[in-house]
Amino acid sequence: MRCSRCNKTAVIYQPYSGLHLCEAHFCEHIERKVKKELRRQMVLKPGDRLVVALSGGKDSSALLYMLNKFFSVRTDLELVALAVDEGIRDYRHETLRNARAITSELDIELHIYSFYAEFGFTMDDIVSRGYEQAPCTFCGVLRRRVIERKARELGATKVITAHNLDDVVQTIMINYIRGDIERLRRLRPGHIAEFVPRIKPLRSIPEKEIAIYAHLAGIPLITAGCPYARLSLRFTVKRMLNEFEMRHPGTKYSVLRGYERLMELLPAVTEQKRLAVCERCGEPSASRICKVCEILELMRG
Ligand code: SF4
Question: What is the pTM of this model?
Answer without folding.
Answer: 0.93
